[in-house]
Amino acid sequence: MKFSCYKNDLNEALQFVIRAVAVKPMTPILAGIHIMADGSSLELQGNNYSTGIISRIPASTESPGEVVVSGKRFQDFMRNMPGDTITFSDEEDSSTLKISSGGAEVELMTMDANEFPKVKTPDRDITFTIKTTVLRNLIRKTIFAVAKEETRPVFTGGAFEIKGDKISLVATNTHRLALATDTLTDAPRSDCNFVVPAETLRGLLNRIDRNETNNYIIMDYSTRHLTFTFDNVFVNSRLIEGQFPPYDRVIPTTSTTNVTVDTNDFRSAVELVALMSKETEYNTVRFAFRNGEIEISSNSPEVGEATKTVPAEIDGDDLEISFNVDYILDAVKVIDSNNLHIALNDRYSPAAFTEPENDSYIYVATPVRA
C-alpha cells in the first residue's frame, strides 16, 4: 500500500472520526482507526459499536490497501507532522505503517484490518433530509442540557420528535430542559421519535460548518440506529433505549412576573457575578427582579460578595430567586435575539427563558432553594 494526501484534509477527518474510537476498548482493535486507500479516495473509519463514523478525503494512491493503526497515536503524530503533504506506505506482510512528510519519518505498529468491525449501513425504516444549519441549530441550543450521569441513560441523549413537517430536539437532566423546534422541507412519511447519544450530537455540531447554508443531511431511522450522511461523511449511531418522559409537563404555561432584558447586558452581568459564585457550594447566584432592574449577586463567606444591576422591563410581582449560575449562562450563550424574555412565578418554581417573537425555542431551569 502506498498513498499520499494533504495534511489539513487528513487532520480535519481525524478530528471527527476519532470520536468513534473507543477510549476503554473491549479489544485493542476498537482503539484503532481503519485506513483504506483506493484510487483518488482515502477512507477513515472509527467504530466503538455505539457510534461508527466514516470520513472520505481526496488522496493519490499508487498502491491500494488497508490497515489499522492506534487512533490516538495516529492523530497525535498527524497533527504534529511538518509539511503540507503526507505519504504513507507499508510492505506486504509488514506490521508497520511508514509515514513521511517535510523531512520527518514515523513508523506505527499496525493491526489486522480483517479484524476491524467495519461500519455497516443498517436497515432503514424512515428516511428524510434536513438542512445542515437546521440540525446544527437544534443541537447547539439543546445539547448542553443533557445529563452527565448514566443512572438514567435516556437523559444522556437528545430526544428527537418528528410530527408532520415539524422536528423537535429536547434535552434534560431533570433539573433543566432545553427544547428547540424547526420545520422540515422534506418530511418523512410517518411520525417518529428517538433518543440519540449526546456524544454523537456533539460530534455533528463540531463537524457541521455554520456557513454551509445550502447543504443537506440525509437521516435514516431504524428501530435501533440513526444514520447521518453528508459531505463524504457517514455516521451510524446506536439509539438509546427507553421511553423519554412527557417533557411538556415541566414547561410553565403561566407566569406572574415577566421580564425582558438586553441579552448582552444580562450575560455580561451574570458572567461577572459567576466569578464569585464559584466559591459557593452550588454555584449559586441570586436574581432580584424589582423597580425596573435585575440585581444579580452572589456571596461567599470566605471570599466576599459580587453584585451587578442591569435595567429591564418587568411586568408583574417583585421576585427574588436563585439559580445554579451554570444553568443560566449555558442558556444565555445560545440565545440569538438581542433581548431575552424570562417568565417566572415564585422562588421555588421553574423559570422559562425564551426569545421574544420566537416560539421555536424554550429553556426551563429549576431554581436553587437558597
Shape: elongated
Q: If you consult CATH, what is the topology of the largest domain? A: DNA Polymerase III, Chain A, domain 2
Largest sheet: 13 strands, antiparallel
Would you tell me the structural class of the helices and strands? alpha+beta
Strand content: 35-45%
What's the quaternary structure here?
single chain
Strand order of the largest sheet: 5-1-7-8-9-6-2-3-4-17-16-15-10
What's the CATH first level of the largest domain? Alpha Beta
**Total separate domains:** 3
The proportion of residues forming helix, as a percent range, comes to: 10-25%
Work out the number of β strands.
Answer: 26
- Estimate the mean pLDDT confidence: 94
Question: What's the CATH H-level homologous superfamily of the largest domain?
Answer: DNA Polymerase III, subunit A, domain 2
Helix count equals 6
- The rounded Rg comes to 24 Å
C-alpha end-to-end distance: 65 Å
Assigned CATH architecture of the largest domain: Roll
Poorly predicted ranges: none
How does this model look, in words?
The chain is of the alpha+beta class. The protein has 3 domains: 2-115, DNA Polymerase III, Chain A, domain 2 (Roll), CATH 3.10.150; 126-248, DNA Polymerase III, Chain A, domain 2; 251-365, DNA Polymerase III, subunit A, domain 2 (DNA Polymerase III, Chain A, domain 2), CATH 3.10.150.10. Helix content is 17%, strand content 45%. The protein is built from 6 helices and 26 strands. The protein has helices at 7-17, 71-80, 132-140, 198-207, 263-277, 325-332; strands at residues 2-6, 32-38, 41-47, 51-58, 60-63, 65-70, 85-89, 96-101, 104-111, 126-131, 157-163, 166-172, 176-183, 192-197, 216-221, 225-230, 233-238, 257-262, 284-290, 293-300, 304-311, 313-316, 319-324, 339-344, 351-355, 358-365. The strands form 3 sheets. The protein has a 13-stranded antiparallel beta sheet. It is elongated and about 80 Å long. It starts with a strand and ends in a 5-residue tail after the last strand.
